[in-house]
Amino acid sequence: MPKSQPEPWLRGTHVEIPPVPRAVIHALELAREDLVTWCADLTEQELAATPSGLPSVSFQLRHICRSVDRLLTYAEGDQLSARQLEELNAESAVGGTRAELLEEVRKALEVARARIVKLGENSDLLHEPRTVGRKNIPTTIAGLLIHVADHTQRHVGQVITTAKVLRSQRT
Questions:
Q1: If pLDDT is split at 50, 70 and 90, which confidence band does 2 have?
Q2: Three-state secondary structure readout of the chain
Q3: Cα separations in angstroms, 70 against 2, 17, 61, 155
Q4: 39-68 per-position pLDDT tens digit
Q5: What is the predicted pLDDT for the residue at 1?
Q6: Whole-angstrom Cα distance, residue 128 to residue 139?
Q7: Which of the chain's termini has less CB crowding within 10 Å, N or C?
Q8: Burial code of 80-111, b = ≥16 C-beta within 10 A, e = fewer?
Q9: Please, what is the angle between helix 98-119 and helix 19-39, to 10°?
Q10: Gap between the Cα atoms of 25 and 82, Å rounded
Q11: How high is the pLDDT of residue 141?
Q12: Nearest CA to 140 among 84, 66, 76?
């Protein structure tokens, strides 16, 4: 689907933000734009569908929102809360309208932007060590921020693929 404007990273925005967090913010902006575009005409039935065993679009949308929250929690030096663990277990639940799911995406990425800006305020701290998960896998703040962008874009790609499959199945 053609874009009416350049991708976020080519718009000259957020120049006041250091490069690493700026790149992550641009990736999340692109993710949101792509999700809105590719989900625009999907029905509730299509959002919940799992064609050829692919995860549903509704799962992918929830997973994007909630995984960004979890990864940023680790970047902030915290462990996951009981709420976050409950949400993790509920990601595959069926339901929600397109408007509700896209609003969850909008809100989650808006909150994420503020958290990313705060984490990136001091570029010297981006090398600070952090750990992920119960196994305390080592990384850094920068590693986690970059993974937020990578992981989100991976799941956006899955949404686009699933949307294409669903559209091809329409009669």
A1: low
A2: CCCCCCCHHHCCCCCCCCHHHHHHHHHHHHHHHHHHHHHCCCCHHHHHCCHHHCCCHHHHHHHHHHHHHHHHHHHCCCCCCHHHHHHHHHCCCCCCCHHHHHHHHHHHHHHHHHHHHHHCCCHHHHHCEEEECCCCEEEEHHHHHHHHHHHHHHHHHHHHHHHHHHHHCCC
A3: 32, 22, 14, 15
A4: 999 999 999 999 999 999 999 999 999 999
A5: 54
A6: 8
A7: C
A8: beeeeeebbeebeeeebebeebbebbeebbee
A9: 180
A10: 27
A11: 97
A12: 76
Residue ranges and CATH numbers for the domains of the chain are 17-168 (1.20.120.450)
Q: In this structure, which amino acid lies at residue 155?
A: H
